[in-house]
Amino acid sequence: MKVLVLNSGSSSIKYQLFRIDDWQALALGLVARIGEPEGEIKLSWRDDADATQARQESLPIPSHEQGIERIIRALRDTGVLTDVTELAAIGHRVVHGGVRFKQPALIDDTVIAAIRAVAPLAPLHNPGHLAGIEAVRAHFPGVPAVAVFDTAFHQTMPPEAYRYAIPETLYTEHQIRRYGFHGTSHQYVAKRAALWLDTPLAQCNLITLHLGNGASATAIRAGQCVDTSMGLTPLEGLVMGTRSGDIDPAVVIYLCKHLGLNADGLDRLFNRQSGLLGLCGVNDMREIDRLAAAGDERAELAIAMTTHRLKKYIGAYYAELGWVDALVFTGGIGENAVEIRRRACAGLERLGIVLDDARNAETHAHGERDISAAISDVRVLVIPTNEELEIAQQALRTVTGTTE
Ligand code: ADP
């Protein structure tokens, strides 16, 4: 049997197919430009000889429903899926589950209504997820579908971590609080870290750093999230590719009063034009590394601000947790950016965080690895994230009613 994982956006659907026996990823791909005159479907898969094959087709894909149908057809054509009856579950990634979803949920009318109800908190994501969920229901009503929420893992945060110090009614009447995101990734790397430490997750204190285009840090006590850097939306916290992260809210007031920015202008400024891009004109960390090495001062500042903010969060979460078993780096930057890891950990020796410079600098190393020195009290781990696998496994557990 197999599990299909879908990540539906407003005009695209990313997908990945897993075989349950060994959790091998059999195929992955993307349907893009749904609703445009010319859409596209991409698929890569492992053939019988275990070689990677790829194909791509351009054609109009008018709706999410037809996108889903195309995905199933492409998987069938290439032989990785014989029929939908082979699917034990379909797992849908859903960015925002509000306070309601602390666990993945088997999708029914009530769950769909609840995802719709929190859509104002994730206007860029939840409507696209709903289109994918509805399309699957309409087309394959017999396959159990599960929603897996980016926010769910953070629902264990205590109020002192999730509330904002603003009037209470904004929380009670408008649900304005911190939710946190990237939960599936933090949860996945936390589990892998526990295996690496050979300690039950319920006994592990961890700081997990998911550093991709979006970036967030999470404090995990005894296996549960107690704090995370993203807030009501994914804008809060670390310096990101195009997002500012933490900022004095009075900057917003100033921009409204003196530069005449409205809500859309502010949204664009803080979500799309800020972060690394706003600081040095580039949001790709590889390019920023090259520019900084060539003496570009703006690129150097972008790196310095990224690592300064990271260090602040590591320190804050260390203080919250009291003791830390491991610091875990993941995401495109966390897994690959040697200099970011080095500078984020520099000077933390008194906290028991000591990198092995040579191990940290192994640029061709892949897979899970320990980059801390033998004398380091805190293990520093690099663990490639795999959100799709985590969604697939959570979806199957939800359908079969099993626990880990
Ligand atoms: P997303 O959040 O879009 O999934 P990723 O997790 O793929 O993003 O991370 C993208 C970031 O990772 C980019 O800034 C990219 O430059 C950075 N990155 C990828 N490989 C390297 C590398 N070898 N060195 C430094 N940065 C890297």
UniProtKB/TrEMBL annotation:
- One Pfam family named in its UniProt record: Acetate_kinase
- Cofactor binding note: Mg(2+). Can also accept Mn(2+).
InterPro entries reported in the protein's UniProt record: Ac/propionate_kinase, Aliphatic_acid_kin_short-chain, Aliphatic_acid_kinase_CS, ATPase_NBD
> Active site at which residues?
D150 (proton donor/acceptor)
- Subcellular localization(s) per the UniProt record: Cytoplasm
Q: Which domain of life is it from?
A: Bacteria
Q: Its Gene Ontology molecular function terms?
A: acetate kinase activity; ATP binding; magnesium ion binding
Record keywords: ATP-binding, Cytoplasm, Kinase, Magnesium, Metal-binding, Nucleotide-binding, Transferase
Q: Name one GO biological process term.
A: acetyl-CoA biosynthetic process
Which cofactors, by name?
Mg(2+); Mn(2+)
Residues the entry annotates as binding ATP: K14, H210, L211, G212, N213, G214, D284, M285, R286, G332, I333, G334, E335, N336
Q: Under which pathway is this protein filed? A: Metabolic intermediate biosynthesis; acetyl-CoA biosynthesis; acetyl-CoA from acetate: step 1/2
Supply the EC number(s): 2.7.2.1
Q: Where does substrate bind?
A: R93
Q: Which reaction does it catalyse?
A: acetate + ATP = acetyl phosphate + ADP
Binding-site positions, Mg(2+): N7, E387
Q: Does the keyword Lipoprotein apply?
A: no
Q: What is its main location?
A: cytoplasm
What is its EC class? transferase
Q: Where is this site: Transition state stabilizer?
A: H182, R243
Q: What does this protein do?
A: Catalyzes the formation of acetyl phosphate from acetate and ATP. Can also catalyze the reverse reaction.
User: NCBIfam families, alphabetically?
Assistant: ackA
Q: What family does this belong to?
A: Belongs to the acetokinase family.
What is the protein name stated in its UniProt record? Acetate kinase
Q: Which organism is it from?
A: Allochromatium warmingii (Chromatium warmingii)
